[in-house]
UniProtKB/TrEMBL annotation:
InterPro entries registered for this protein in UniProt: DNA_brk_join_enz, Integrase-like_cat_sf, Integrase_catalytic, Integrase_recombinase_N, Tyrosine_recombinase_XerCD
Any Pfam family hit: Phage_integrase
CDD domains for the chain: INT_RitA_C_like (cd01188)
Official protein name in the record: Tyr recombinase domain-containing protein
Organism encoding this protein: marine sediment metagenome
Gene3D superfamilies, per the entry: 1.10.150.130, Intergrase catalytic core (1.10.443.10)
Keyword annotations: DNA recombination, DNA-binding
Residue intervals of the Tyr recombinase domain: 161-346
GO biological process: DNA integration; DNA recombination
């Protein structure tokens, strides 16, 4: 039980200020919190790399990121740009380059060349970030030469991969395996229900508030985090019952407007990364093979699309259920509808017997 960890820290340190703890004491607190995180979600989330933008170049990078934030870019997009710029800043520091006007094309090229080749998209994303950064500096008259035009174009194309899906039977097995005899289980069951029955994204489940539940109309209505598009769905009885069970018997007492909370004090809203971990651990504990398949919450979104296609549901309906802006996005799932694809197969034409008896010609040269 994660409350044991909380009680231990309270007994050991009381209400002492964390910033005034020794390094050993801070390590102890972090260790207990990691164990609590694993107890709640079934997985350990990666710790975000600490970024300190020091020096004059670092200040310009911070200014650029603030500009991007003012354009209301998504938080994860800002985080990605921050990581790309931070790695470039570390490289420049290693080269003892302290002025932005001392940067030239070779510095950029050698930096890109040093990126781990196992991550094919990383050089592309890094170059795109650096182009934007240098273009911003030049337009703001902070850089004498526009280096953005000197960064070469690459031929990277994001390859559309086959969506990872789980069968209806596997999903039901996963749901049945969740232990609803405790608070965490009740919460996890409701979360997985929302992902499996509605195909909701982890970000939307994490951001779900009480005001989004319209019990009198038996609907769930919210604005999607990714698209900004409003989505209204019918409150399926099994989903509604799972949410009510968590609210009455599993949710900590809190004034938070968000429905799903972490089960340890101070009972803050759950984050999308934890939801991905919950789905992963639910699949593993149910004994479902995740080999060569994605195993986060988005895999349940793909699975729902596959199940609807298998039942003959038309694309506009699937698009509406999943909250896509248009049906073009749903065409991504057509490749997993093997039942319908088989109807499109063409008969292989027979080969004349004379073909096998011929002598000479292209195939014999």
């Amino acid at each position: 039980d994660s409350t044991i960890g909380k009680d231990y820290l309270l007994q050991e340190f009381g209400n002492r200020d964390y910033s005034k703890l020794s390094k050993h004491e801070k390590d102890l607190v972090r260790g207990v919190n990691v164990l609590c995180e694993f107890q709640e979600t079934g997985s350990l989330l990666p710790v975000k790399e600490q970024t300190v933008f020091d020096g004059s170049i670092g200040q310009l990078m911070t200014k650029y990121l603030s500009y991007k934030i003012s354009l209301r870019l998504k938080r994860h997009t800002i985080d990605e740009k921050e990581q790309h710029l931070y790695r470039f800043l570390c490289y420049l520091n290693e080269q003892r380059i302290t002025s932005v006007n001392a940067i030239n094309q070779l510095h950029v090229l050698y930096f890109i060349k040093g990126i781990d080749p196992r991550f094919s998209a990383l050089p592309h994303m890094t170059m795109r970030t650096l182009r934007g950064f240098f273009s911003y500096l030049y337009n703001q008259h902070l850089l004498d030469i526009d280096l953005s035009g000197m960064i070469p174009k690459d031929n990277f194309h994001k390859q559309a991969k086959m969506p990872s899906i789980y069968s209806q039977k596997e999903i039901e097995t996963m749901l049945a395996a969740i232990d609803r005899g405790n608070a965490n289980g009740k919460r996890n069951y409701a979360i997985v229900m929302l992902a499996a029955r509605f195909g909701l994204r982890a970000s939307d489940i994490a951001n779900l508030r009480f005001e989004n539940l319209h019990w009198e109309r038996c609907t769930i209505k919210f604005c999607q985090y990714k698209t900004g598009k409003s989505l209204e769905l019918p409150m399926l009885p099994e989903v509604g019952n799972a949410i009510v069970d968590y609210m009455k018997y599993g949710r900590p007492k809190s004034n938070e407007a968000f429905i799903f909370l972490l089960s340890r004090s101070p009972y803050t809203p759950i984050h999308s990364g934890a939801i991905t971990g919950i789905v992963h651990s639910s699949l593993v504990r149910a004994g479902i093979s995740i080999d060569n398949r994605k195993h986060g919450s988005h895999s349940l979104r793909h699975s729902l699309a596959g199940i609807l296609l298998e039942k003959g549901t038309i694309l506009p309906i699937i698009s509406e259920v999943l909250g896509h802006k248009n049906t073009e996005s749903v065409k991504f799932y057509l490749r997993i509808d093997l039942k319908s694809l088989r109807q499109c197969t063409l008969e292989v034409p027979s080969v004349a017997v004379s073909f096998y008896g011929q002598k000479g010609g292209y195939f014999y040269e």
